[in-house]
Amino acid sequence: MKAFLFCLRRLSTMKETTLAQIALTTDHTGAIANPIYLSTAYQHAGLGHSTGYDYTRTKNPTRQAFEDAFAKIEGGIASFATSSGMASIQLVCNLFNPHDEILVSFDLYGGTFRLFEFYETQYDIRFKYVNFENVEEVKAAITPHTKALFIEPISNPLMIEIDLSPYYQLAQQHRLLTIIDNTFLTPYLSTPLADGADIVLHSATKYIGGHNDVLAGVVTVKDPVLAEQFTQLHNMIGATLAPIDSYLLQRGLKTLHLRVERAQQNAQRLAERCQQLEGIAEVLYSGRTGMLSLRLAPNYQVAALLQHIQVCRFAESLGGTETFITFPYTQTHVDMPDDEKDKRGIDQHLIRLSIGIEAYEDIENDLIQALEKSKEGVLYEAHETN
Fold this sequence. Notes:
This protein has helices spanning about 1-20, 60-75, 85-95, 110-125, 135-140, 165-175, 185-190, 190-195, 225-235, 245-255, 255-275, 300-310, 340-345, 360-370; strands at about 80, 100-105, 125-130, 145-150, 175-180, 200, 215-220, 280-285, 290-295, 315, 325, 350-355. The N and C termini lie far apart (about 60 Å). It is of the alpha/beta class.
């Protein structure tokens, strides 16, 4: 057991060092940080001669530096940086044909649900929502048209953690692709490609960028055939990442382990504390990452809580240094029909928290004071100090 724990720690420290030094270059100038190449075109010495770069949509040195670095930490052979997380999912959707069927996590991000609804209507690609907590239910849902499994290993917003191991085996048996949206966990906490996944994607806007200042996505694969398919689709569709944004993502990778560790520690402490609070009816937390959701008791009002937070921020994103509170009912899942939200338990008492890296005591105290003021019948008067 000691040897096993030592190996785990050794792997963790190796990953930390890799991330900290992820942007070191062999540039002839000796530059420590990668340069930003803004050029959209590259000159050629003559017909049939190329530097390897022709047009920046096809290939850009700064984007390639990030993609190569990210593929390395994911355990893949190629990554494809896109202009948003949704663009990454769209890139993956273009692998499929009309009448193909994809089994999808029942609880998942509302923007993904919206895109899948569009693809089903527009292109007749079928998306069947299943409960990945029940392997037998998933097995029963597979048909001759099923081509892939699309799984959020920690679901958004209910934070349901899925054991992916049986689905890698199931996918092999039925020749299905396993597509993992690993946005919440990041490659620091989880590398699904190494475990058996075929495609891993992220909204890199979130933990990868980590500072709420870049919009991006990334898809990574380990199979050469898939890599070639995505190379063509990436260039053809054109939702590629700009050089400055690529630089910001690579910069974000340097501190990914520090930010994720701190956010996770804060979230673990807050989840435990919230179990003891009168105004919290349910704590939804996997025990990992910095994401958790809270369901307020019926006599507490979300609107009032959001009005009184001072340290936390009411905003629609996650994975940054600041603690964000999001209201899925009218934000991330606003386009999901009410009956679908009801089926999933996404109600008007549910809030999703992306825990930041602030001092834990400040986060806890802020949430508690706002919660106390959100109880129905409690009158709160703000007193100005002169």
